[in-house]
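FAQ: What does a ligand-bound record look like?

Like this one, built around adenosine-5'-diphosphate:
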Amino acid sequence: MLTLDHIQYQVGENNTSKNIIEDISFSFLENTLYVITGQNGSGKSTLAKIIMGILPNTKGKIFLGKKDITKKSIQERVQLGLSFAFQQPVRFKGLTVKNLLDTASNHQYSIKELCEYLSMVGLCARDYIARPLDEKLSGGELKRIEIAMTLAQNKPIMIFDEPEAGIDLWSFDDLVKIFLMLKQQGKTIIIISHQEKILSIADQILVMQQGNIIAHGTPTEILPALSTSTKCIKLVEKGGNHGQN
Ligand SMILES: Nc1ncnc2c1ncn2[C@@H]1O[C@H](COP(=O)(O)OP(=O)(O)O)[C@@H](O)[C@H]1O
Ligand SMILES: [Mg+2]
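The answer part, i.e. the structure of the complex:
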């Protein structure tokens, strides 16, 4: 179980300070698929980066089971079982696709195994294995390679930040199938997404607004409120003990 306990992320100095994440408490369970949604700028990517240790939270604690990981580095969190596919993947110049998958997963996969991971994300694997991670790869290709990397890491907790972004031509159903397969493997999957298809397969949808989780629940509970023009107001009015699970 991954627990966020009163997480805050503040930027700026004294009178110009701003809470990007205001006060978030939530527990993510195993064998569960969470989708975090909310308007641009509501703090979703920031929250994912705080969970991974890429950004330091300014208040609150993060627990993995009973272990306090608040002060752990990114590498330590990865070793403890967390993984993250960025909204905008990094181009690791000088590495090939194979190097990236091997390094990230800390494992020497066979070409056949690597091909399987790449095929899962719709890439014709053999064409890609030796490709350098340079500007010749399109944004969509890079994004798929990053999802393949996260699959190859095979961690108990997987966070995907807008995995659908830039993947126009690839059948969406394949992506959805991957997430359902991961859930069956007992993992904790946290997907940041606006896509209705992905929202509809969630066990729990979390709605973020201005650095807070303003509502959470099953798709049946959350989606009708999201589809109205007054969604934010409605969800705030619902209130309750959101953010605690
Ligand atoms: N270091 C920073 N200083 C000031 N504002 C920031 C900083 N980092 C993020 N922000 C702002 O915080 C908000 C949340 O960003 P982000 O987490 O990327 O949102 P989302 O992923 O929900 O679109 C945005 O308005 C962004 O501009
Ligand atoms: Mg984002």
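Follow-up question: can I read anything off the structure? Yes, for example: Residues 44-45, 87, 161 surround magnesium ion (ligand 2) (CB under 6 Å).
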